[in-house]
Amino acid sequence: MPIDYYEKVWHNGKFIPWNEATVHVGSHAMSYASCLFEGIRAYETPQGAAIFRLKEHTERLINSAKIYRMELAYSFDQLQQAMMELVRVNQARHCYIRPLVFRGYGELAVNPLKNPIEVYLLAWRWGKYLGDEALKNGVDVCISSWQRIAPNTLPAMAKAASNYMNAQLIKMEALTNGYAEGIALDASGFLSEGSGENLFVVREGKLFTPPLASSVLPGITRDTVVTLAGEMGFPVVEQPLARELLYIADEAFMCGTAAEITPIRSVDRIPVGKGKPGPLTLKLQELYLSIAQGRTEDTHGWLTVCSQPVAAGR
Ligand code: PPE
Description:
Layout: E1 4-5, E2 8-11, E3 14-17, H1 28-32, E4 35-37, E5 40-45, E6 48-52, H2 54-67, H3 76-89, E7 95-103, E8 117-125, H4 134-137, E9 139-143, H5 163-176, E10 181-185, E11 191-194, E12 198-203, E13 206-209, H6 220-231, E14 236-238, H7 244-247, E15 251-256, E16 260-267, E17 270-271, H8 279-292, E18 303-305
The structure holds ligand PPE.
Residues 39, 167, 193, 196-198, 217, 219-222, 256-259 line the site of ligand PPE.
């Protein structure tokens, strides 16, 4: 699918055309993957385009930069303002925002410290992450033969491009074998996460999700699910989870900004529950989307409205 992009890109404080948002191949990030990113959705709401959990995504970006000793020239507030401005100048009704922070052109050697830090904000329109029918019908997934990065190799709490080389191996293997997504085990053999989503299992009225120690990204949708499920009277247990729990689960789903809440209907060709999206999964999915789209009152302050409804926007 070609990128359905918005024309204006934010680069170090200025807006530039999409086609001019290029980097030199000698940039540090190209050779050494010294790049961090975020993925954020702005939804169309009756109040105009609204960014979902902007504060938490910005915090995670700042944390990723701290872990990798990258000094950001922009404050928490400036980054949030820039993302709101990005949505406004592009007159986007809804979009996916991709902040990128990377080490640019300067010196080529492993030591990254002499290279400038570049900050870009891109926006494009992104449809359903795991296929058009995924949210409604669920997806077929497999357990990957690739493990998730071990805790003492690459930090899973940082959303770094390097982690996504591991994710690409998981994804390619899954697609090659006819699955929509792969779920990796952690270095101890417990369930970790999908190539781009966190994982939840429902069994006997309880929700389970792998803990951060299982090398998962501290997902913001994961946190949203934990909050909403708790309010619905379903506390979530965070503990190391055995692979076979998925095979005997009543329901399972994956979640992420891009994937939203996607039901899992089978794992390794074993049907999960009745082999179709479960009732609690669908309830959480609907509640999540209705809050994000401004159809249900935003009691948590998760939405940041960027603009008035724009008739001319797309
Ligand atoms: N784990 C991984 C490995 C991951 O990439 C994501 C998001 C999550 C969990 C869920 O995190 P959150 O979005 O905060 O709920 N993956 C992003 C990028 C996907 C891509 O293909 O690029 C996303 O969903 O935006």
